[in-house]
Amino acid sequence: IPTVSDLYTSGELSPSSSPDPSLQPSNSLNSKISLFKGSITTLATTCIVNAANESLLGGGGVDGAIHSAAGPGLLRECRPLHGCRTGSAKITKAHALPSTHIIHAVGPIYIRAKSQRPGLEADLLRSCYKTCMDLAGQKGGSIAFSCLSAGVYGYPSGEAAEIACREVRRWLEDQEADEEAENKVERVVFCLFENKDVRAYLEWLPKIFPPE
Ligand code: AR6
């Protein structure tokens, strides 16, 4: 899977005309980020991230695809977890999937969170990405994210992509600064399934991960 650095070299990713001036270009960050278009159920990363709901008992969208490909052992492992709060995540084994672990993250329902308090939707989505990176950091290796909340939960793709890119960059910078970090996240894959999300990431990745 090509990294952001590879995508700049091949010309598949173009530098942004309006990069964030507060963010420094970094090749070490760009070579840790990848884009993949297709089903997350095919990826053999250490962790894959499921867009779950608070019950953790399965559903439609990527959650349905993951449960049906992982097999019934996944639901058996999820039942005793007793659900998960919005903005957080819990980890299981990957069962019949090619990855090793599944991180089940519960993203916000966009309209509901925003109507509770403007900005709550972004806080909750950011908290999902942070919790997933923390859990993946305990395992080391690689993590592939689905576009949390960007399906039936109604989060606009562009806003969701900006939050995902910013939070992952912030987390990786913290990891680089922490010399004592034991298990490291070496690779982050943004797994995109729909063209609206592809367009959003082609816009936001060059702003948050500019070329050197
Ligand atoms: N691989 C990768 N991404 C996928 C796949 C796949 N196989 N299938 C869909 N997507 P959604 P949400 C993308 O609706 O908005 C479920 O019923 C899709 O294009 O799956 O967080 C849960 O049980 C979209 O960009 O999750 C919850 O009840 C992204 O996955 C609720 O939906 C997320 O869309 C969660 O809603």
Automatic annotation (TrEMBL):
Sequence ranges assigned to domain Macro in this UniProt record: 20-209
Transmembrane segments annotated in the record for this chain: none
Domain of life: Eukaryota
Protein name: Macro domain-containing protein
Region of the whole protein represented: 10 to 221 of 360
